[in-house]
Amino acid sequence: MTIIYILIEHLQSNTFSAFFGGQKLITLKRVSSTNDYLKEELSKSTPFNEGTVIMAEDQLEGRGQAGNKWLTEPGKNLTFSLLLKPTFLNPIFQFNINISICVAIFEVLSPLLGSQLKIKWPNDIYVADKKLGGILIENSIQGNEIKDSIIGIGINVNQENFTTVKNACSIKQLLHREYILNDLLYELCKSIERNYFQLKKLGIVHQKPIYIKSLYGLNKIRKFNLEGVFVSGKIIDVDIDGRLIVDFNGHSAKFNFKEIEFVLNK
């Protein structure tokens, strides 16, 4: 097991009124990764309740899907993790959590950013062809239930220069104004709470259509990279396991993450 070393210079605890019954927001001055911090504390049996939020002012080793790096300028963006305990959900339906979280974020940001805001499968937030945010969900499964779900979220908010990432963008770049990070965090968490409880009560009957309709590249012919082979196809759906369904001139195929790569427009 890899040991994660975490440097914390400042710890501040606040309470979100009405959020998950008023669960805590813990702000870290500097941390390797909010997901790793939360996993490490849970491994120590730290009594974090559902709805606890860990936010980092400076995240040194943020991670995306499949170990991709998530680099961010300190104090400019939202980098946080949220603890859920979706024991009501059978692990075979764990992608439903992904759908619920993506839709929650989309519903907060779409009034600000308009029709160019999209969900890039499986869980990135895009505006046109630029990446605004990403989500990393790590589930702890015991038997036939999901014991814990750590939801890591990164949203580019006030950063203006992305020298190491070619296709990144931020809310400030798009709207030419700064946003108060805690205010946006509160709105995102309230939306996550609302969608999460809807998921618990009704499943994704209302959320999946929003997810599908908002998919980046839906029903549009575009290029994909299949292990070095470039092909044209169009996204038509996502199945119950979270696999992307792409139509290639009348023949559809399903892909897990990293089995297919978008060829982004330049």
Question: What is the secondary structure topology, with strand pairs?
Answer:
Elements: E1 11-15, E2 24-31, H1 34-43, E3 53-59, E4 62-63, E5 69-70, E6 78-84, H2 95-113, E7 117-120, E8 124-127, E9 130-142, E10 145-155, H3 171-175, H4 181-202, H5 207-213, E11 222-226, E12 229-238, E13 244-248, E14 251-255, E15 261-262
Parallel strand pairs: 2-3
Antiparallel strand pairs: 1-2, 3-6, 4-5, 6-10, 7-8, 8-9, 9-10, 11-12, 11-15, 12-13, 13-14
Quick description:
The protein has helices spanning 34-43, 95-113, 171-175, 181-202, 207-213, and strands at 11-15, 24-31, 53-59, 62-63, 69-70, 78-84, 117-120, 124-127, 130-142, 145-155, 222-226, 229-238, 244-248, 251-255, 261-262. With 266 residues, it is an alpha+beta fold. The chain folds into 2 domains: 11-213, Bira Bifunctional Protein, Domain 2 (BirA Bifunctional Protein, domain 2), CATH 3.30.930; 222-262, Roll (SH3 type barrels).
